[in-house]
Specification:
single chain; alpha/beta; Rossmann fold; 10 helices; globular
Length: 246
Amino acid sequence: MTGFADHFSEVAACYAQYRPHYPVELVDALAERCPARRVAWDIGCGSGQLSVALADRFERVIATDPAAAQLDHAVRDPRVEYRCVTAEDSGLGDASVDLAVAAQSAHWFEWPRFVAEAGRVVRPGGLIALVTYFNAQLAGDVGELLARFYLDIGPHWPSGRAHVRNGYRDLVLPWPAVEPPAISLVAQWTRDEVFGYVTTWSATARLVAAGGEARLEELRARLADVWPDNEPREIRWPLTLKLARR
């Protein structure tokens, strides 16, 4: 696992609890664009936010992540096989999967090595998919507060986050592009769930590790001021999809 930068093991339990799960519309769109649905490879699966959903449309799901702590908190399902390996060295057989999908993870990959691995592992005609989302969208004071906090902790964001900000513009898939659908991830969350989500950001984890926990607690207090009832509100993340045909 040389070169693997682990940003999430320290917050793996929170990651499993507070990261949003992907909508069925995404799973359906990916499956419908695959000529066969035997094996799906969920790359950088974290704690399985997409893995189990894929198992509803594919005969077998192999979900990989280089962080053992993430996999320790993953949802178990007999149709999903979790493996602790990197995206660049999967150990999968040549031309063995119909779908290779990286959801909110491709920006951490060693890109040329990953492209070579995906080209080796995906069957001719199979689908390679990158999925990402940027900041959560909430209305009013809450949305403004989260946007300010995101900018304030800017120095703590790892360099790979730049790919998320620019919609994966620079992550080039060297195969014919497939037109992506327009899909949003939508959730109804309480204030406490939104705060828990913020604690899973890579920059937040680095902020706390650098002794900045007081800034995180300040955010908690200010969220309580602008969202005192803690009642669920709609949160929306428009998804960016890049799809290519192997």
